[in-house]
């Protein structure tokens, strides 16, 4: 079992612990805002399970039916997380509406808030671990899970701060109002997560800054060739696919052309982690006099 899968299992354990703590906080207080926080924690557990299944499946080697591997399944996981987040937000909005119509005092507010604060601290630590390791390991599923938890942290801090005012001011409508704000924030987060994941499913090119660097690497390591054109890039999970046409002199031997390709591939792989490179070699009469000029 690799590190990504171990982190995904860790998310399931941490998510379950946080849910138990947040539900205990809701049970102690009867707060709709804390209920919304606990409901989001249920979604955290579900999405952690989905993320684990995604990273486990994506780690499978390429096969006859999937010659490019299974890495894109992580994007499906992130999209599903976005859908679940949106569903949770709509459910919270419903509870907030009825709570606003019939506000009530909180039971044991300070004890419940203390338990919720402990759960929030656990999420702070784990979201940092997931985002840091997800980016390092180039795992969209882990990064999405970490960002989701970070949203949970931000909303939990807002809920805690707001609910402290309820027993002090006696304004019981503040509880459902905070729940509604939590729901709107979750809704926005879910939409952003889905939008980012869909870009991966649609084979979006690498960022412009990285693309410029790829062009420079090709240009600086293609000595002996004439030009490179039709450069294309795309992401698939932690992999980055790069393909282009390399024009060489027509009289050049296959061995010499292959040596140039090897040199370019080594340079690109040292620059772009987990790069999968395809180079189509062409004779000089195929030159387009456009694209990447060889230095």
UniProtKB/TrEMBL annotation:
Residues 207-283 form the Cation efflux protein cytoplasmic domain. It is a multi-pass membrane protein. It holds the Pfam family Cation_efflux. SUPFAM superfamilies: Cation efflux protein cytoplasmic domain-like (SSF160240), Cation efflux protein transmembrane domain-like (SSF161111). Keywords: Membrane, Transmembrane, Transmembrane helix, Transport. It is found in: Membrane. The keyword Phosphoprotein does not apply. The chain crosses the membrane at residues 7-26, 32-55, 75-93, 113-132, 153-171, 177-194. Residues 11-202 form the Cation efflux protein transmembrane domain. Belongs to the cation diffusion facilitator (CDF) transporter (TC 2.A.4) family. NCBIfam families: CDF. This is Cation transporter. It comes from Microvirga terricola.
